[in-house]
Amino acid sequence: FVRSANLVIYTCFAVAVSAMVASQMGERTRQDFASENSSVLAVFVAVCTMVVVVYLLDRRWRRVQLQLEVVTGVMNESHAFSLNLVRHFMPSFKVAKYQFRGMKAKRGRAGVEFKDLGLDLPNGKRVLNGVTGKFGAGRMCAVMGPSGAGKTTFMNTLCGKATYGQMVGTMMINGKEADPKDLKGFMGFVPQDDIVHQDLTVREQIQFSVRLRGDVSLTKNRIERITEDVLNVMQIDHIQNSIVGSVENRGISGGQRKR
Fold first, then answer.
1. Which residues fall within 8 angstroms of residue 61, CB to CB, at 6 or more apart?
2. d(CA 138, CA 136)
3. I need a surface site. Which of 81, 123, 135, 203 has the fewest CB within 10 A?
4. Which residues lie closer than 8 Å to 161 by C-beta, 6 or more apart?
5. Are the C-beta atoms of 171 and 177 separated by less than 8 Å?
6. How many angstroms separate the Cα of 244 from the Cα of each of 54, 59, 213, 251?
7. Cβ(39)–Cβ(14) under 8 Å?
8. pLDDT tens digits, the chain, 259 residues: what are they?
9. In what order do the strands lie in the sheet containing 176-177?
10. Which residues are bridge partners to 113 per DSSP?
């Protein structure tokens, strides 16, 4: 929409300049000006029409997202009420908060080991040196340290994201030596800076990621189910129809954006 508006402004400027030149010459009439600049006027009318259509579509899309947000809130309240009702009348009955329909349990587990891990920059300087450790399968680990200690550099190197340097050392998956570049399809990485689109909703972001990272054989129904699973696991299903937003246009919170 912004690009279309800028195009309209530039076209208006061109038409205005042409009109000023024609008026200063004094010999050309309005009919002559219109006939000689018919193509410019046609483009101007077409661009104006396109901007109006895009604006109306944008307004309609935002209205639909607001309606879906209200519907999602009602559905979540109804689901919570039904769970509480079952627990109240049948306290011994186990009720799962959510039942996965798209995501499947992983067949295998992966343990990560690294020895003498380092990163050399093109200028010859080594910014990471001799890091050795192990991340056990099925375990959650935290890398802690003061600002500037190299936590981000370490994670970038371990995940194969440090394209600005050369990794040195050894990395092993389940005891076998591996290259981080070969594990991109099985690895998730959340950078410090946001890379989500500010004009899309939370649900659209997840759907895009599912299509990008999933198998090409995934059906539309399976994609929808996986999206629902991720939204519930990350506890952001209540804002799935909210626009992410940016610093200028406030949307979801920073923690929700990270998730």
1. none
2. 6
3. 123
4. 155, 189, 191
5. yes
6. 20, 17, 21, 5
7. no
8. 455 555 556 555 565 555 555 555 554 555 565 566 667 667 777 777 887 888 888 888 778 877 777 777 776 677 676 767 666 666 665 656 666 666 676 667 788 888 888 888 888 888 888 888 888 888 888 888 888 888 888 888 888 888 888 888 888 888 888 887 777 767 777 776 667 788 888 888 888 888 888 778 888 888 888 888 888 888 888 888 888 887 777 788 877 887 7
9. 126-135, 112-120, 166-173, 176-177
10. 134, 172
Quote the CA–CA distance of 1 and 172 in Å, as a whole number. Answer: 49
What is the token pair recorded at 80? 């919570």
Distance of CA 186 to the CA centre of its chain: 18
Q: Where are the beta strands (DSSP E) in the chain?
A: 112-120, 126-135, 166-173, 176-177
Alpha-helical runs (H) found in 174-236: 202-213, 220-233
Q: In which residue are the tokens 């995934």 written?
A: 218
Half-sphere exposure of 131 (CA within 13 A, CB side): 23
Query: Both tokens of residue 14?
Result: 């061109």
Count of residues in the chain: 259
Q: Are strands 176-177 and 166-173 parallel, antiparallel or unpaired?
A: antiparallel
pTM for the predicted model, two decimal places: 0.52
Q: Which among 79, 81, 100 has a CA at the least distance from the CA of 89?
A: 81
Q: What is the pLDDT of residue 18?
A: 57
Q: What is the CA radius of gyration of the chain?
A: 28
**Exposure letters 69-92 (e unless 16+ CB within 10 A, then b):** beebeeeeeeeeeeeeeeeeeeee
